[in-house]
Specification:
Layout (H helix, E strand, L loop, with lengths): L2 E5 L4 E3 L3 E3 L3 H13 L2 E4 L10 H13 L18 E7 L7 H7 L8 E8 L7 H8 L4 E2 L3 E4 L6 H13 L1
Parallel strand pairs: 1-4, 1-5, 5-6, 6-7, 6-8
Antiparallel strand pairs: 2-3
Helix pairs in contact: 1-5
């Protein structure tokens, strides 16, 4: 089964761990790729979020309130060659960042299996599974995985990712 990981991740100032050089969700995406051989596709915004955590949060809320579809640096044109699509991002106010939807809205998910994952600091999967069921018409949305951002680098988190991908 060929798979791809579509994700958004942000480094810089982080809520729980200070300044980071690699976003928490990117670390989890790399674990998924390591265990499954999935290709990685990062949703990089054309205009990045502020490096300041509080400013980033304000920007994320404004994008959610306006249901924005921020421009990305590049897009996937299709996912025809993939059976499984992992979709991941940090939780911003109960949902994925809008950049994820900028990409997902352009894709046909008919017949695909979508596997949601998130990084968070207390909200778990929040509304992400429900939103993916709406956005990914024709797909089967599998059980998701939520990893606390502050725990991403712990061996237990990597093991949780391994167990999750093996259970699917």
């Amino acid at each position: 089964m060929k798979s791809i990981v579509i994700y958004f991740s942000r480094a810089d100032e982080n809520y729980a761990v200070g300044n980071i050089t690699k976003g928490n969700t990117e670390v989890i995406a790399e674990y998924i790729s390591e265990f499954t051989g999935a290709e990685l596709f990062r949703c990089d915004p054309a205009i990045p979020y502020s490096a300041n955590y509080r400013e980033c949060c304000k920007e994320a809320v404004a994008k959610q309130r306006s249901d924005a579809r921020p421009e990305l640096k590049r897009y996937l044109s299709d996912i025809d060659g993939y059976d499984a699509v992992y979709v991941g991002g940090p939780i911003y106010c109960g949902e994925y960042p809008q950049e994820i939807y900028s990409q997902l809205d352009r894709l046909d998910f008919a017949g695909k299996t979508v596997r949601p994952f998130v990084t968070h600091e207390g909200s778990g999967l929040a509304r992400c599974v429900a939103v993916l069921k709406e956005k990914c018409a024709g797909a089967t949305v599998a059980d998701g995985l939520a990893v606390r951002g502050r725990d991403v680098y712990l061996a237990e988190s990597k093991e949780a990712v391994r167990k999750w991908v093996e259970s699917l």
